[in-house]
Specification:
Layout lengths: L1 H16 L3 E9 L2 E6 L19 E6 L7 H17 L3 E7 L2 H9 L4 E3 L23 E4 L17 E4 L7 H17 L3 E3 L14 H8 L5 E3 L8 H8 L4 E3 L15 E3 L4 H14 L3 H29 L5 E2 L12 E4 H10 L8 E3 L2 E3 L2
Parallel strand pairs: 2-3, 3-4, 4-5, 6-7, 7-8, 9-10, 10-11, 12-15
Antiparallel strand pairs: 1-2, 1-13, 14-15
Length: 364
């Protein structure tokens, strides 16, 4: 009965804030440990939606966009300070995608750790596939948005695109139409791989289907100037693809290696030349993957250590255990604000297989 009342209160609190989406997961019910992303309506992730109460809780907060600028960090500091005045039992920890983001937040007095969120990309799904013919010089996995700069691929002779629509506004659909027409006119060797639904929107691939498409290309592309960590960058590497990227902020470069990742100016000629150079090197895909896994394993151990330090500080006997216990392709999933709050209040742990073995929470 108490739980039902708590969930009802959380829903009333959510309704006062309106409906929107945010990435979130619940890592522990007792103590409450959540891992969520910043969005405009919830700048502290799930912590911004916390209903009134005195429950101890830990909120791990991850940027969904680059925060490498002082004004953004000062804004986050103000939100965090106000939140702690209202919720003295809450602990806020920022999990930052770059060392620079973490340093800026620590300078403001916030608890911040450098842990790039792409550490959770699953190597069981993204991997080299034997016997797949390379049909394309490069492939670009990116939503259809102007800041993804698809036009920078126009110098590449044969390029494939995995895409999806993040918005349905008329101006975004008009942008898509123009993008498709431009590539058909200027680059006949370019192919948009997704099927299209009755409304004209690209049908999003499942993760395993994305991996199969990556196997058809020689090089992966990262072309925005500023965004978040960009999961596709690590998916390329686990699939064994070298990467051509432009200079950027947001954290997609963290797992890059100069041996098989080139950073070049944001112009079509430089990108095409870099793609040709990477393709010519013929770096074994297994080598790219293994080097990337070494980086991921180090980051994953640090993530688990952080969770376990929180559990120790909360005086509970449960622990997370390696090997990597999380079962989702990406730990956080996009939820409605109501669903995210309901999971937190009800204690639904949804990010890993919670099987007790000698006091440890381990993967199933």
């Amino acid at each position: 009965m108490a739980l039902r009342h708590a969930v009802a209160r959380s829903r009333r609190h959510f309704q006062a804030k309106g409906s929107f989406m945010l990435p979130a997961a619940i890592l522990s019910a007792d103590p409450l440990i959540s891992y969520s992303g910043m969005v405009p309506r919830a700048p502290l992730g799930l912590a911004s939606l916390a209903p009134p109460g005195k429950r101890d809780a830990w909120f791990l907060i991850s940027p969904t966009w680059s925060t490498e600028e002082p004004a953004t960090v000062r804004m986050l500091r103000r939100h965090a300070a106000v939140h702690r005045l209202r919720h003295s039992h809450h602990r806020l920890i920022f999990l930052c995608n770059t060392p620079e983001e973490a340093s800026l937040l620590r300078e403001q007095g916030e608890a911040a750790v450098f842990l790039n969120k792409t550490l959770s990309v699953p190597e069981a799904i993204f991997r080299p596939i034997e016997g797949v013919s390379v049909e394309f010089d490069a492939i670009y996995n990116a939503q259809l948005a102007p800041w993804k700069r698809h036009e920078l691929t126009l110098g590449i002779e044969r390029c494939a695109f995995i895409c999806y629509r993040a918005e349905t506004r008329p101006e975004r659909q008009a942008f898509e139409t123009e993008l498709f027409a431009r590539h058909a006119r200027l680059a006949p060797g370019h192919v948009f791989l997704n099927a299209v639904d009755e409304g004209g929107a690209p049908v999003r691939f499942l993760p395993a289907d994305v991996n199969r498409q990556l196997g058809r290309a020689a090089v992966g592309l990262c072309l925005s100037a500023r965004e978040g960590a960009m999961f596709a960058s690590t998916e390329y590497l686990l699939a064994g693809l070298p990467v051509v990227t432009t200079p950027s902020t947001g954290g997609r470069h963290i797992h890059f290696d100069p041996e098989y990742c080139l950073t070049v100016p944001p112009d079509p000629r430089s990108i095409a030349e870099a793609v040709a150079a990477m393709k010519a090197k013929e770096i074994p895909r297994g080598y790219v993957r293994e080097r990337t896994l070494q980086r991921l394993d180090r980051d994953r151990c640090r993530f688990i250590e952080l969770i376990n330090r929180i559990l120790v500080a909360s005086d509970t006997a449960s622990r997370l255990a390696m090997p990597w216990p999380f079962r989702k392709p990406v730990i956080m999933e996009w939820l409605t604000a109501e669903a995210a709050v309901t999971r937190a209040v009800s204690g639904r742990v949804d990010a890993f297989e919670a099987l007790e073995q000698d006091g440890a929470l381990v993967g199933g």
